[in-house]
Amino acid sequence: MKKALLLFFSVSILMASCKQEIISPNSEDEMKTGRSDDKTVHSAGDGKWDLLGYGYDLTGDFPNSSYAKSAIVDIEKLKIDHPTTVELATTQSSFAINETGETSEDFLRKITNRKTLNEGTENLYKGAIDNNFSNENKWSSKYVYGSYTQYISKRRLYMMGNVNLLKEYLKTQFISDVKSLTPSEIVRIYGTHILLDINLGGKIEIIYQAETSSSTRSLAASSGTEVAFTKIFGVSGYNTFEGSSSLAKSNYNQTVIARTIGGAFEKTIKGITINSDGQPSETINISGWSSGITDSNLKLITINNVIPLYELITDPIKKSQVQSYITQYFKAHQVSLTTDVVYIFENSARKDYALSTNINLPQIYQGWINNNAAFKTYSYNPSVAQPIYSYVNNKTGDHAYTTTKITLADWVAEGIPFYAYNTQVSGTVPVYQFYNSANTSHYYSTNRNATSGYTGWAFEGVCFYALPLN
């Protein structure tokens, strides 16, 4: 769900798709060159050209000075020789951007598309989730994600020179490093791209993670993001959000990172939880924050234009090597949704069985116990799997599951508890359905002989396909 008062981002980038070096997402951090600036964190606000001409890692967090790398272009010399190619514009604008996704993958894809970055990749800024949420299953398809950011822009810096011109104004250290360092070391020190057009100022921002029982996942995420932002910072959003606070109540297991960047003070709080009443476990008092944004404390808040790092490498062999490495680097930082365990729960009083990914179901509904872990599948992933529909018989209490919607007397739809496959694909196993007419009860298992030795159970065939536990 995207609503914005102002969008800055316009970038056109070409990424080649060639293979040379397979890397893991963290391998660049393990490389050491002995350079004194290996861990330099660059800050805007020097009163001149700030981070213009610096490198940046687009796999990291949303635009943030912490992900700026070392200087690549000598902006001062370029400005002297070609005054019109480098510009500084004073801006006095405020705007807000909200983005939500049905999953982490969907969320980052929308962020990437909004910035019109074409990297041969569907999602950038993986670090926005990876670095800010500690739960091991953060990539589970059960989570919706959202972000809401209010910006105050004070300054825009940009350069308009073509690549050939910029090659004449490269920093001496960059030229030396390109000759002597490996592609992975170059990317670690200089990032993946060069900043050509940026905005400086301040921003307050949250990134939101939650599970939801709503069928309109993006709307629920948007509503939850709005409520969290308002409660944590004590302010109202600039936009009129779709959805309402009542829709936010369909969200649970809510976690937020909130932060202020630039301005009179900077603060980041991770792991803020939101209770069922929409109240956060922590808040941030931003009184005086916006009025305290001055030239001395401006920070990078938006990236408007970049070019790939390798475009400024003159040696064709080294350029190809770095280009290939960056292609693999982006592939290694792609989001891949993870599956969840589906449990089978038993209600002995009702002689009923139910399937759910929520291991805490017995704490929510009385009379249920966790029978065992049954299989793995996606909580939500319509791009690769099909919805599994849950029905309950309002006379017998029996639960049944199907890959198609049904309309039968006494059966009431309960929604979509998870997604699976209606045909067998590589790596999946059958989930069999059994029925006991005496108990009017259905049972599900990946074991064809699960009911052997138990009286009254009839085998009814394959219900759907899912992933095995191991």
TrEMBL record:
Alphabetical UniProt keywords: Signal
InterPro entries the UniProt entry points to: DUF5648, MACPF
Signal peptide (from-to): 1-16
Bilayer-spanning residue ranges: none
One of the Pfam families matching this protein, by short name: DUF5648
Domain MACPF: 14-344
Superkingdom of the organism of origin: Bacteria
UniProt keyword Signal present: yes
Stated name of the protein: MAC/perforin domain-containing protein
